[in-house]
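INFO batch 0412 | record 1 of 1 | parsing
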Amino acid sequence: MHVTEINKLGKQLELYTYADYIGKGFPIILPKGAKLINLIRNYVESEEAKYGYEVVRTPNVSRAEIYKIEDRLDLGKKEMFIIKSNDEEEEKREENSIVLRPYSAPFHCCVYKTKQRSYKNLPIKLSETSTVYRNERDIKGISKTRQITLSDASIFVIPEQLESAIRESLELQQSFISKLGLDVKYYVATWNDNKKEDYIGQIDEWNNATIAMKNVLNSLNIPFEENKKAKMYGPSIQIFYEEKEFSSMQIDFEIVHRFDLTYVDKDNEEKYPIYIHRTSVGSYENLLGILIEKYQGEFPLWIAPIQVIIITESDEYEPFAKEIEEKMLKEGIRVQVDYSDTNVQNKEYKAVDQKIPYIVMIGKNEFENKKIKVRAKDYVGKIMDSQNLIEEVLNCQAKC
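INFO prediction complete | emitting tokens
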């Protein structure tokens, strides 16, 4: 599906929009799009909590010095938004510039460094729904933006925990992929044997990590391909939906040394942990584009921004509609009454156009008999009691 078609459908469904005076790559997520994203975000965060992740919040802006410590300031300048200081003396020192955060890893390292760690404390698992900013050149609608919301996670492990940490992360990612109904491909990104001098870390570190990744993928019966597209600081597992990267799991052999992150082992010696960075569902903006493409707007009921719309043929039936709306809201159903000043045919057409799963019609007969007429994917014009629809929606949502 072409970017233009995704954007057209995103506008039709009232999920997001753009404005020239805001700028390319900065979409405005509208209420329905925000609701869909928040539903997935809440699910992701609740599932991560079950795996022992602790939520952190870190700054969207910082001094450039944090990236200098990481030794990524020069490498990352092209993708960073850097704000110069107004103080002439401060501006002489590059590390005093203010940077809009391009990624969260160094901040999570600062969280780790707040106290001395023991091998008994590890693994340490941190999660954050973080907003990052990257000066992307190849903007692709909602799929590649300059303000990016990530389902971020950082995991610090001792070497003996590496394989189990990879397994747990993959199982968690797989649960999200299955819940969203996506078909994905897996790649193990390793180094190019002809350019070993370009990579950071020891050969045995790379080999152990790569073997651990392959072992876990094989044990979980996940087909994968190998490529030579590893980043300089470690191998990774890349997860793709069609040609779009969905999420990843990246090992970084360098960052723990740059920030001097250590733990005390059982022999009372200081050692460096292994750092794993992963995303649960990648970028929420990219995910929104993937879901639009996958479902053509007919989203699974559990993430449908509006599950039920109620349409009345006359204003005099609106109190009855309001009564049904309140009953549904109390059951946690996302429902709205269409109070717009237009005829019933236009209201129904708009609801169909926006692919709302359940369209409830209330005309004279329904009002007099205290019933509703329902249009859904599997039927049209079904007469029922409002309580029957509530039970159907709740049962359907539970099965999603």
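INFO post-check: The chain is about 35% helix and 25% strand.
INFO record closed
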